[in-house]
Amino acid sequence: MNKSLDHIGVAVRDLEESISFYTDILGADLIDRYRSEAKGVESEIAVMEVNGNRTELLSPTNNTTSPIARFIKQKGKGVHHIAYRVRDLDKALQELELKGIRVMKETLRVNKHGRRLIYLNPADTGGAIIEYCDYPNQ
Predict the structure, then answer these.
(1) Contacts of 13 (CB under 8 A, 6+ apart)
(2) Tell me, what's the pLDDT at 55?
(3) For residue 118, what is the domain's CATH number?
(4) Which residue from 36, 57, 62, 133 could staple onto 42, CB 3.0 to 4.6 Å apart?
């Protein structure tokens, strides 16, 4: 199945400072900013775009349960995940299963932009956090 880079997720401690860096230094546009309190997300997200390429800045809103807070505590701020867009998430998941790659089923969700997403199990990806996503309504 064909894949393309959808976005890179970056864990940050200070969202305002990070937005300023992306806009003032990198020339990015702030496309959207929203807060997600969904279990397993619990973060404020700023979607930045530079020449059509997106980066999501992820700042934890709950330092006890947010996976972003846990990531920063363990590894520090920086690249959290890479998201690949697929044409059909269900078919892509079937292909992964045939190849013995597990997904974290509890992460399957649809975000406010209609992006359906799931994370692959880092134990099967060499430790990298990889998201697969599709946009079924586009």
Answers:
(1) 59, 72, 77
(2) 98
(3) 3.10.180.10
(4) 62
Among 82, 66, 60, 71, residue whose Cα is nearest residue 14: 60
User: Which amino acid would we find at residue 17?
Assistant: E
> Which tokens is 115 given?
């992006």
Query: Can you give 8-72 as a three-state secondary structure string?
Result: EEEECCCHHHHHHHHHHHCCCEEEEEEEECCCCCCEEEEEEEECCEEEEEEEECCCCCCHHHHHH
Task: List, for residues 8-30, the tens digit of each pLDDT value.
Answer: 999 999 999 999 999 999 999 99
Q: 122: which DSSP letter? A: G
Structural domain including 61 reads 3-134
Quick one: 64 exposed, middle or buried, by C-beta within 10 A (0-12, 13-18, 19+)?
exposed
What is the domain count for the chain?
A: 1
User: pLDDT tens-digit profile of 29-78?
Assistant: 999 999 988 777 889 999 999 999 999 999 999 888 899 999 999 999 99
